[in-house]
Amino acid sequence: MDVLLEYLPSVMGGIWTTIGLALASVMLAIFFGIVGASFKLSRNLTLRTIGGIYTTVIRGIPDLVLMLILFFGGQIMINELGDATGLWGYVEISPFLAGAFTIGFIFGAYMTETFRGAYLAIPAGQIEAAQALGIVPASYLRRIIWPQIIPHALPNFTNNWLVLMKTTALVSIIGLQDLVYNANQAGRASREPFLFLMVSFVVFLGLTILSDIGLRRLSRRYSSR
């Protein structure tokens, strides 16, 4: 118990980093998902091809492999480009930025299919009626499409969010001092790795339960409309 009390503040200090990383990642995932869904639903063959390649390739690469490629390879590429052009000096990518972008980019592929499926669930006649009435695309997208996409997308969005939140633990590999990183360090210092990994287990479980409850309530709210 004394060991737990001694290192617990340090471990719990990583919670906000984990939550911030998860929120930044999901915002990027939503952005990539909307863009990807727009590409796959486009009448333009090139855009549909790009969207298909994005979802197929990204979902086929392990998350950790892609994260390491972007963190180390991306940093090397940016600095070599800066040296070649002379436009900037040495650039160091932070673990938080690399982790958020990688996780957002990966889950953007899953969000693409979520938003695409939700869009296809809307009766085509509603869109045709809006066009026949002369409603501009921006207006019927805001008033007709999005209010119906949200309830269709929320169940899959919930699953993606819960998996994304757990995936943030991978960023500890590249040195981000999140919950898992701090728990691992405390376990090594105290020689009680199991104890502090259990702490991170309980925290992640709590965050998962709270997220699930909140998103299910939101889903029921939109479904009742």
Structural account:
This protein has a domain at 20-176: MetI-like fold. 82% of the residues lie in helices and 0% in strands. It has helices spanning 2-12, 15-41, 45-58, 63-85, 95-120, 124-132, 137-167, 179-190, 193-223. Helix 2 (15-41) packs antiparallel against helix 3 and helix 5 crosses helix 7.
Structural descriptors:
single chain, 225 residues, mainly alpha, MetI-like fold, flat
- Going by CATH, the homologous superfamily of the domain at 20-176 would be MetI-like
Percent range of helical residues: over 70%
Extract low-pLDDT stretches. Answer: none
CATH architecture descriptor text of the domain at 20-176 = Orthogonal Bundle
The main sheet comes to: none
**Helix/strand order:** HHHHHHHHH
Average pLDDT over all residues = 84
Distance between the termini: 50 Å
* CA-atom Rg in angstroms: 21 Å
Task: Quickly describe the structure.
This protein is mainly α and 225 residues long.
Write the topology of this structure.
Blueprint: H1 2-12, H2 15-41, H3 45-58, H4 63-85, H5 95-120, H6 124-132, H7 137-167, H8 179-190, H9 193-223
Helix pairs in contact: 1-8, 2-3, 2-5, 3-5, 4-5, 5-7, 6-7, 7-9, 8-9
